[in-house]
Amino acid sequence: MRRATSPTARVRHRIRNLAAGVLTTLGLTVVLIYGIPLMTGAQPLLAVPGQSSEPVPSSAGTTDTVPPVVSTPAEAEAAATRELERAPAGPGQPVRVQVPRLALDIPVLPMALPADHRVNPPSNGFAYWISDYGPAGPGATNTTYLAAHSWNLGYAAFNALMDIQAGAGRVQPGDAVLVTTLEGVTHYTVTSTAGYAKSTLESRDDLWAAVPGRLVLLTCFQLNDAGATQNYVVYAKRTD
């Protein structure tokens, strides 16, 4: 007789299976990205066009300290602490992002842009800074991009930024966004949000322009396991 499994156990097992696909395609830029599909064979979040970049050494991807799937914010915090002890942050490297109105307060890890320029954060538990586009803070000479998953079937780093059931963003112009680096906290204010078809992202010159002092948050509209055809993008400007 097969042993019965609890709903929680079945969900955890399913998440682990789905997350395996995340590791098949990686890529990103400094924009807030909502809802990346946690599915086997999942499409990457976006394809990034060529742009002059400022390479920064980073430990992109998963490691022994960064699991591909985490189930709770506490697990994410513990894993991020271990990873930053293993590979300490450099100057201008974001280590935390907050949107106080939405009670978002999550760790940030670095990832390098893959050779094929296709972005998919390697874990659901963290926002990822695309290090190729330069640092955050007052010294930034480019746009800063952060990307993360959102998902209505479990925990993901950017869940707080979306009304996932409605498939709509919760961020509003005027919202404060705080990015922490070794040098301190940089304050940004949201100027606008947009939804773009995934197929059009690479050709959007406004999204990929090098704008010093700009922060972009990027994710997908991800509902259940149906995949995502839309990206949700948050634009913010530095205000300190």
TrEMBL record:
<dbReference type="InterPro" id="IPR023365">
    <property type="entry name" value="Sortase_dom-sf"/>
</dbReference>
<dbReference type="Pfam" id="PF04203">
    <property type="entry name" value="Sortase"/>
</dbReference>
<keyword id="KW-0378">Hydrolase</keyword>
<protein>
    <submittedName>
        <fullName>Class F sortase</fullName>
    </submittedName>
</protein>
<feature type="region of interest" description="Disordered">
    <location>
        <begin position="48"/>
        <end position="93"/>
    </location>
</feature>
<feature type="compositionally biased region" description="Polar residues">
    <location>
        <begin position="50"/>
        <end position="61"/>
    </location>
</feature>
<dbReference type="InterPro" id="IPR005754">
    <property type="entry name" value="Sortase"/>
</dbReference>
<feature type="compositionally biased region" description="Low complexity">
    <location>
        <begin position="62"/>
        <end position="79"/>
    </location>
</feature>
<dbReference type="InterPro" id="IPR042001">
    <property type="entry name" value="Sortase_F"/>
</dbReference>
